[in-house]
Design a protein that fits this description.
This protein is mainly α. Helices cover 30% and strands 7% of the residues. The chain has a two-stranded parallel sheet. α3 links the parallel β1 and β2. It is elongated and about 65 Å long. It starts with a helix and ends with a helix.
Length: 137
């Protein structure tokens, strides 16, 4: 930590006015305005879906699991999870969303399509994902 803070001091990170955080005082902590902004951000980030019988999943259906996180393992964890999640340092002990849905869909078929990529403008996977969605129950 000493080397990190030394570097931050050398580049002026702790100089008065160097950061917007230095302009905040006790009156800004948990203020009414900040509570309102936090509440509005939570409302905008919340998605409510009407459950019209889709859940719980009925066994024996043809289900399409779509999206780049469908087969992600480490992507299901936060940035603070570390790199030694499972025995021997891999992430094999984490069940993916697609694996969990496939296991619950006893007697049915589960198709997985990535669709788009997280950090890319590639569109090649869009049509296969749309086709899988159209063919699903």
């Amino acid at each position: 930590a000493r080397r990190l803070f030394r570097t931050l001091f050398l580049v002026g990170r702790f100089d008065p006015g160097a950061s917007e955080w230095t302009r905040l005082g006790r009156q800004d902590i948990n203020s009414t305005r900040h509570q309102q902004v936090s509440y509005e951000a939570a409302l905008q980030g919340l998605v409510l879906l009407k459950n019209d019988g889709a859940l719980p999943l009925a066994a024996g259906r043809h289900i399409a699991v779509l999206g780049p996180q469908a087969v992600a393992r480490a992507g299901l964890l936060s940035d603070y999870a570390g790199d030694q999640i499972c025995y021997q340092g891999s992430d094999h002990c984490i069940e993916t969303v697609a694996e969990a849905i496939g296991a619950a869909n006893v007697g049915g078929s589960t198709v997985v399509q990535q669709g788009v990529e997280v950090n890319s403008n590639a569109t090649a996977g869009e049509q296969p994902a749309l086709d899988a969605a159209a063919a699903a129950d």
